[in-house]
């Protein structure tokens, strides 16, 4: 029950449909003391495409809404200029699921390569991550963070909770070499 006449009896959820219309504060607060996550955070999309059974965040932030690569690039540039951070975290519930994540990370890596600014994807599904993405993130030359959360100890458990991460996603099979069986090969 409302405890004041000004409060409505029922509060309805409001959803921002176009995130590009709502870029972040252009001058983010910078802590005076060293903090654990010493980086600028840029939200690249809201919501999650997956639907793991236990996940409240995925449920209450529906529907999925992506920022455009141009809008994200603008937020990164303005935020870095205003804050002086040297790391940018591309945040969301599952950042590698942004439909343009390849072009986005490549564009940012092109822009900041050699500048000492590193990029990180702190929240990433292991089955959406790949080597190209890792290469783009490491082009700044600085180590940056990656977090994978498989959530279940076995593939069966992960299937039960709708977290479709296979054993192969976590531990890819070793590449096999094919023998050419040439009689001149020193290994034969
Ligand atoms: S992928 Fe992550 S954020 Fe998305 S529903 Fe699953 S646990 Fe939630």
In short:
Helix content is 27%, strand content 12%. With 188 residues, it is of the alpha/beta class.
Q: Give the number of helices.
A: 6
General form: globular
Q: In CATH terms, what is the fold-level topology of the domain at 44-165?
A: Transcription Regulator spoIIAA
Mean pLDDT: 87
Radius of gyration: 22 Å
Q: How far do the termini sit from each other?
A: 83 Å
Tell me the structural class. Answer: alpha/beta
Order of neighbouring strands in the sheet with most strands: 1-4-5-6
The counted number of beta strands is 6
CATH class of the domain at 44-165: Alpha Beta
List bound small molecules: iron/sulfur cluster
Major β-sheet annotation: 4 strands, parallel
Helicity level? 25-40%
H/E topology pattern: EEHEHEHEHEHH
General description of the model:
The protein is of the alpha/beta class and 188 residues long. The chain has a domain at 44-165: Transcription Regulator spoIIAA (2-Layer Sandwich), CATH 3.30.750.210. Helices cover 27% and strands 12% of the residues. It has six helices and six strands; from the N terminus they run ββαβαβαβαβαα. It has a four-stranded parallel sheet, covered by helices on one side. Strands 2-3 form a two-stranded antiparallel sheet. Strand 5, helix 4 (131-138) and strand 6 form a beta-alpha-beta unit. Helix 3 runs parallel beside helix 4. The radius of gyration is 22 Å and the shape is globular. The model has no long low-confidence stretch (mean pLDDT 87). The protein binds iron/sulfur cluster. Iron/sulfur cluster binds at residues 48, 50-52, 55, 57-58, 93-94, 125.
């Amino acid at each position: 029950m409302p405890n004041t006449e000004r409060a409505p009896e029922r509060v309805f959820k409001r959803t921002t449909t176009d995130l590009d219309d709502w870029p972040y504060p252009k001058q983010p607060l910078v802590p005076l003391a060293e903090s654990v996550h010493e980086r600028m955070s840029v939200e690249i999309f809201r919501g999650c495409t997956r639907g793991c059974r236990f996940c409240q965040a995925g449920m209450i932030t529906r529907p999925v809404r992506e920022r455009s690569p141009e809008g994200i690039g603008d937020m990164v540039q303005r935020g870095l200029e205003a804050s002086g951070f040297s790391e940018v975290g591309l945040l969301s519930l599952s950042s590698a699921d942004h439909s343009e994540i390849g072009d986005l990370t490549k564009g940012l890596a092109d822009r900041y390569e050699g500048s000492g600014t590193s990029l990180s994807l702190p929240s990433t599904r292991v089955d959406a991550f790949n080597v190209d993405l890792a290469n783009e993130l490491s082009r700044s030359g600085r180590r940056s963070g990656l977090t994978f959360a498989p959530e279940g100890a076995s593939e069966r458990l992960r299937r039960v909770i709708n977290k479709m991460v296979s054993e192969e996603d976590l531990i890819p099979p070793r590449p096999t070499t094919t023998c050419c069986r040439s009689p001149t090969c020193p290994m034969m």
